[in-house]
């Protein structure tokens, strides 16, 4: 028998060899984008472990986990689909948006009918002739107009990225369901027959899209339900009406038809938590609701963290924000600090921008008013050339590296002008860490601590980096 000391020494040698092999197989790759345009998702030299020192330490804790991620992307408005469909460089643009050689967008927001961005005149799926006053049984329901260019673009996107998910939202119910009898502005009609018909509208939409081979992951009942505008499709829908539609008709209808599409409520700004909170306080409605959706145009960006604490069993979706000439403060720092990092650190499963693509006139906008200076994620010019806007790279720092069903891991929070970070573990075990240096006056050096190793990096001012760690 070998002496006891020899056995212990052998064990130490083995453990050291295992640990050395473990760290030898570890790697950390880096991609950087900065505000001055010098880097745009630029691949940098891979990092090796270093010694530790004083300074910012971004400790990634694999054992402290938060929400699962559904995806990152933007909205396929009618205008966006029209512009993509008719582009002579359509295939290349679609690869840039959804392919692994591009940014692998993983979540799309699909308007159900008209918005303020239209390649054709706005419509819904149950528009009636002037002599017909209602269609409570949805006999005239049809998605035929979506087949012209929206559904072909969706099918192409799904072919490129089969894991792509879709959330669908109407800007307006059919005109005959509204007090104004118009798609533009007004409120949803009171009355059980209208509520029941609207539930059937969603059922038929989901079934019609499923017959095209397109699954709808989630729906919201109404985009910005507190907003009405007489220049484009909008509709006010009170929280009481949204609650009653879900509780009495939509939830039971989904059960009856074995529909697994998630029901998401609110879909409006951070500045009103009462709308969603009131609905969720009703257990009859809450039993059917998966979560709430939020926009960036009012309120504090950390609102959803507090809302999650009040309703920890419900998911958070961030579904809209748009840059443009109207928002001169929008840049890499704002987009990453407030949205990419700010929303996911406050429990968002998705982060989505507004139009995925627009032409060089911020459109098209056939027959509608609304925003006339919003940006698309990409701009498709009349000569066929494209411009990848700031939003493209901001989304890419998440969507290209953080995959559906990744789980958010714990990282520390520092000061407002210090480095900001968020980390996710993918199903393959890789970890993506997104770090922002928001300062406009200096570079910032920090360490990423993971699995007992330290990786040092100096990030230029007003820059974001995604680090991908594999072991």
UniProtKB/TrEMBL annotation:
InterPro entries noted in UniProt: GH, GH30_C, Glyco_hydro_30, Glyco_hydro_30_TIM-barrel, Glyco_hydro_b
GO cellular component term, pick one: membrane
Every Glycosyl hydrolase family 30 TIM-barrel domain range: 69-402
Keywords from the named record: Glycosidase, Hydrolase, Lipid metabolism, Signal, Sphingolipid metabolism
EC numbers, comma separated: 3.2.1.45
Superkingdom in the source lineage: Eukaryota
Domain Glycosyl hydrolase family 30 beta sandwich residue range list: 406-467
Single GO MF annotation: glucosylceramidase activity
Reaction catalysis annotation: a beta-D-glucosyl-(1<->1')-N-acylsphing-4-enine + H2O = an N-acylsphing-4-enine + D-glucose
Annotated Pfam families: Glyco_hydro_30, Glyco_hydro_30C
Single GO BP term: glucosylceramide catabolic process
Family: Belongs to the glycosyl hydrolase 30 family.
Name of this chain's protein: Glucosylceramidase
Organism expressing this protein natively: Magallana gigas
